Amino acid sequence: MQGTSLAGHSVLIVEDEPLIALHIRTEFEKAGANAITVHSLRDAFRHVEQDGVSGVVLDYGQGSQDGDALCHHLRQRDIPFILHSGYEHISDACRGGIIIPKPAKPEVLIEALLRALR
Amino acid sequence: MLGGVFDTVWSSVIPDLGDPCGETDIARNRLAAIIFDLARDGQLGPHQIAHTARRLFREAQLGPSPNPMTSESRVMSNNILPVQPAFSPQALGLLQLCFDDAWQEVAGNFAAHETDAARWKLASIMLWLASNTELSPTELIEASILLIRENART
């Protein structure tokens, strides 16, 4: 683990399962990030637009919504993102995202985002 | 039975908390963890649990026990470790099952507009308990239900 190597970074976690979201957030905070959880894509868009984020962990395919529009939005802004997904099929709109099969250990998500931020 | 013990002790320690802004949830979780730890082996009655829990809670709030080698203090030290390793996917899967069971039990207590906030609250409680105690899955569910109901009442 990289310790505080995410210090200074703001990480948005988009996840509708509260237990998973809070667990991931806790581990990103331990790694030094300012981690924020949201459980809807609408809130995710708002955070990206209003607050700015260094990177995003997206539960791809959450609920009945899909994350294609958010992926596109992030790509346009060169914001690195991780697709934490139990789905095998990821759409073209999400090219450029790092796909991590769900469930993953938080440290795997952290390392992946660190690599993307370098 | 433990709900009653919790209520009794909680009402008696509230004045000790001073300005509890932002700390109330942590204090509640801590007290619940103490009570469940004391009750788990079935050796203590309600009055003994309440008495001991009150003392251990106050020690935890005010500082270390003057006699840190007592068994009760060791119980307390297990409850307040601030940093724990991340849960494995398997452990998180088990926690998710506990969460689902607990939620099924309490979901009816919340109106539709309260559901989201209550689920996040329950998740927060369960993660805290799982990280800071050694409760069995059944005890974890019971403690979480107790705390989310307490939280809803206040």
Contiguous low-pLDDT stretches of chain A (5 residues minimum) are none
- Counting DSSP E segments of at least 2 residues, the number of strands of chain B comes to 0
The overall pLDDT average of chain B reads 78
Give the fraction of residues assigned to helices of chain B.
55-70%
Distance between the termini of chain B: 20 Å
Determine the fraction of residues in helical runs of chain A and give it as a percent range: 25-40%
CATH A-level architecture of chain A? 3-Layer(aba) Sandwich
Rounded Rg of chain B: 15 Å
The 3D shape of chain A can be described as globular
This entry's quaternary arrangement is heterodimer
**What's the number of domains of chain A?**
1
* Large-scale geometry of chain B: globular
SS strand fraction of chain B: under 5%
Number of discrete domains of chain B? 2
Sequence of secondary-structure elements of chain A:
EHEHEHEEH
Strand content of chain A: 15-25%
- Characterize the biggest β-sheet of chain B: none
Write a structural description:
The complex is a heterodimer of chains A (118) and B (154). Chain A has helices spanning 18-30, 41-50, 68-76, 106-117; strands spanning 10-14, 34-38, 55-59, 81-85, 98-101. Chain A is α/β, with parallel strands linked by helices. In chain A, strands 2-1-3-4-5 form a five-stranded parallel sheet, sandwiched between helices. Chain A is globular, with a radius of gyration of 13 Å. The mean pLDDT of chain A is 88. Chain B has helices spanning 2-13, 24-39, 46-62, 71-79, 89-106, 115-132, 137-153. Residues 64-83 of chain B have low confidence and may be disordered. In chain B, 69% of the residues lie in helices and 0% in strands. Chain B has seven helices and no strands. Chain B is mostly helical. Chain B has two domains: 1-80; 85-154, no CATH class. Chain A binds chain B through residues 17-23, 26-27, 30, 39, 103-107, and chain B through 83, 86-89, 92-93, 95-96, 99, 116, 119-120, 122-124, 126-127.
